[in-house]
Amino acid sequence: MDNPLRLIMNTLSRRSFLQTSTTAALGLGLFGTSACTKAPPALPFEISLAQWSLHRAFRSGKLDAMDFPAITAKEFGIYGVEYVNQFYKGKAQDTKYMGELKTRCADNGVKSLLIMVDGEGNLGEPDKAKRVQVVENHHKWVEAAHFLGCHSIRVNAGGPGTREELATNVVDGLGRLSDFAAEAGLNVIVENHGGFSSDGAWLAGVMAQVNKPNCGTLPDFGNFCIERDKRKPDGSRGDCLEEYDRYQGVTDLMPYAKAVSAKSHDFDAEGNEIHTDFYKVMDIVLGFGYSGYVGIEYEGSIDDEYTGIRKTRDLLLKIQNS
Phi and psi (nearest 5°) for 154? Predict the structure, then answer.
């Protein structure tokens, strides 16, 4: 039996195409020949919000994941969202829930960009049968992302083995998932997210081997710790034992980037992030001709989540207009 969500997606996709085509035709008829109409200057990039920036509030129940689009628009004046699947467990194939989430986006003028997917297994699983199952575990998120109008799902390049063994297995897993996602017109993008994936050269090499137009990267400004010490007694993360240079890492990953994650933690009195030179790293990003969304992902502990998001937004706005 056909997946009901997929049937709805196909129907909505055809309807959306017809509506978009009609609107475009009307727009050309009304404005295409007007000498008085002047388009506003294009911004070098747009700003979005990663849901993880509010993970403490969502985890505690203080915020409802259904309200994420409205919070993003009304509290921060941002109109692009990046979901985290952890906050929508059991909802990927719930057409009523996803339909309401899509409506909330439309009501607030918010665009759904991607879903960050965790907890579905390692795409670098060494056993082929298990790796295929992991790929299939991700299918529902591809379908949900397509339904919401996203361009990508973010996955992890994790698994056991040596540097070479893991690369071989991840290339296979990513290739299989990318082929499935291509049928929905979706990208599969990998974030530097610990282990070998935080080695920019390694992950760039994986991308070159996968060699599919819809498989790319999500460079994160702050996730370049390759090996970390065990957790501390208070439950906090252990110290980083081996770290890849973040500016080199972003440089390595930008040729394959389909989204960018502006990781932030702490700020000085002038509003600059003290761990990452945002001006320097954004020069790298823009130097590759990137003009898409740059997603705020605040993970600091000194400022509360709302304040940290606003400080990151304000810093990006300065860069955007400089």
Answer: -100, 130
Q: Are strands 225-228 and 215-218 parallel, antiparallel or unpaired?
A: unpaired
Q: Give me the pLDDT at residue 235, please.
A: 76
Q: How confident is the model at residue 293 (pLDDT cuts 50, 70, 90)?
A: very high
- Strand segments, DSSP code E, in 106-163 are 111-116, 152-155
Q: What is the spatial distance between Cα 290 and Cα 280, in angstroms, rounded to a whole number?
A: 15
pLDDT digit string, tens, across residues 172-213: 999 999 999 999 999 999 999 999 999 999 999 999 999 999
Q: Which residues is 260 bridged to in the sheet?
A: 294
β-partners of residue 264 are 298
Query: How far from 307 is each of 218, 262, 271, 300, 304, CA to CA, in Å?
Result: 24, 15, 11, 10, 5
Q: Contact at 8 Å (CB) between 77 and 111?
A: no
Percent of the chain topping pLDDT 90: 83
3-state SS, residue 89? coil
309: CB partners within 8 A, 6+ apart:
49, 53, 54, 76, 296, 298
Determine phi and psi for 9, rounding to 5 degrees.
Answer: -60, -45
